[in-house]
Task: inverse folding
């Protein structure tokens, strides 16, 4: 228990955790089931190219998110590119500025131009600002259901239809979530999930394009396999985005355990909310409990004016304690070296969130005790905000930032 300021690791105390507590530690499903499946795969000698395990994974994903088609891929970034190609996008694609860099990168790598649009206070693309970034070169929007909270899907569909734009969703965070009671996966022209190791359901690396559009699905499927459409025909230049059998086996084991993963995430989220309730200036972002949520991300909003301590000071203090909160998605894609030379408009919504939010550890590797200890540190830092902020010399900060 931290009682005095110099109990904080930042000021020489013993860290609250002996080893780093990371966010996104993978959820592992039924190991025996997975290993048996791997053995079967080896016995069959069918390792890739849409084998029976990948097909079963696709079937189960499509069923869970209530769509017609699922194309399983090696990762979500590749699936985003398939979606862009299969939907026939050209020129500019509007993307939110507050997202993981894979969203704009997937557009850029295909030789198209990502055009950033600011986000609203929820962190999702601000539909009211779309008009101000729309040009005649735009062919589509790629929106992101940030941290599993749905975009305004109705208004986005209206805007896209009114301007003749395709609508894609980067739903990397939103597997198992719903919008207005409908499962995420069936919105827009296509949606893309990530099954990366850090996601609620993982296949080591993996992703999926899902859609109800038959021809888009068929084209994406062929593009994922070099553009091959028959033994002697390649319809167009494709790529190799296929999911391997062993990845699909992990995905199936993970899917089978998903209810337990989500339940645990929910318990963690509730524990954070209870532990931090009433701490001035802090708010654990809530979920809309009328929707289905995967509760995968615990996001803390720090209002420096009330807490007396900034998100950065709090995060640095936590890191010194071996609590590795992450400042997602700071500073906003438009301010990273990859894009800042060509983005000149300020994105005030993104810039504000990029200064306030920190993602905290959750998932099945995070124990109730971890959360209790972590929150005790948070409460201590906020209750000693003035002293902590004042005592953090430049030297200490530099040391922490290097962590
Ligand atoms: C919003 C978003 N889009 C895309 C990706 C890329 O996913 P993958 O690692 O499966 O390529 C991520 C990864 O975390 C993400 O957060």
Result:
């Amino acid at each position: 228990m931290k009682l005095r300021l110099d109990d904080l690791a930042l000021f020489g105390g013993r860290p609250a955790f002996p080893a780093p507590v990371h966010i996104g530690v993978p959820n592992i499903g039924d190991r025996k089931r997975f290993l048996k499946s791997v053995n079967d795969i080896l016995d069959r000698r069918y390792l890739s190219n849409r084998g029976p395990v990948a097909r079963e994974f696709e079937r189960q994903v499509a069923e869970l998110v209530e769509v017609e088609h699922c194309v399983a891929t090696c990762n979500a970034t590749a699936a985003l590119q398939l979606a862009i190609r299969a939907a026939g996008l050209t020129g500019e694609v509007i993307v939110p500025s507050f997202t993981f860099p894979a969203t704009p990168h997937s557009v850029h790598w295909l030789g198209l131009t990502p055009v950033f649009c600011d986000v609203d206070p929820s962190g999702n693309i601000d539909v009211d600002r779309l008009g101000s970034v729309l040009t005649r070169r735009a062919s589509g929007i790629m929106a992101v259901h940030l941290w599993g909270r749905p975009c305004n899907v109705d208004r986005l569909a209206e805007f896209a239809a009114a301007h003749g734009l395709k609508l894609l969703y980067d739903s990397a965070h939103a597997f198992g979530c719903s919008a207005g009671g409908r499962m995420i996966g069936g919105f827009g022209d296509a949606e893309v999930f990530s099954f990366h190791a850090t996601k609620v359901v993982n296949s080591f690396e993996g992703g999926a394009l899902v859609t109800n559009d038959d021809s888009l699905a068929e084209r994406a499927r062929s593009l994922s396999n070099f553009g091959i459409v028959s033994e002697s025909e390649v319809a167009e230049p494709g790529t190799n985005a296929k999911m391997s059998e062993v990845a699909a086996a992990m995905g199936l084991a993970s899917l089978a355990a998903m209810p337990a993963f989500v339940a645990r995430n929910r318990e963690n989220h509730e524990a954070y909310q209870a532990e931090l309730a009433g701490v001035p200036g802090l708010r654990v972002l809530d979920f809309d409990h009328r929707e289905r949520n995967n509760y995968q991300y615990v996001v803390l909003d720090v209002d420096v004016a009330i807490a007396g301590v900034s998100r950065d000071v709090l995060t640095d203090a936590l890191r010194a304690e071996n609590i590795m909160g992450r400042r997602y998605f700071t500073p906003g894609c438009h301010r990273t070296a990859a894009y800042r030379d060509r983005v000149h408009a300020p994105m005030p919504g993104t810039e504000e969130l990029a200064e306030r939010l920190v993602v905290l550890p959750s998932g099945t590797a995070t124990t109730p005790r971890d959360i209790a200890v972590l929150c005790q540190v948070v409460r201590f830092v906020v209750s000693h905000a003035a002293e902590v902020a004042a005592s953090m010399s430049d030297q200490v900060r530099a040391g922490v930032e290097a962590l």
Remarks:
- DSSP finds 15 helices and 16 strands in the chain.
- The longest strand covers residues 138-144.
- Residues 310 and 356 are 7 Å apart (CA to CA).
- The chain has two domains: 5-12+258-325+361-401, 31-256.
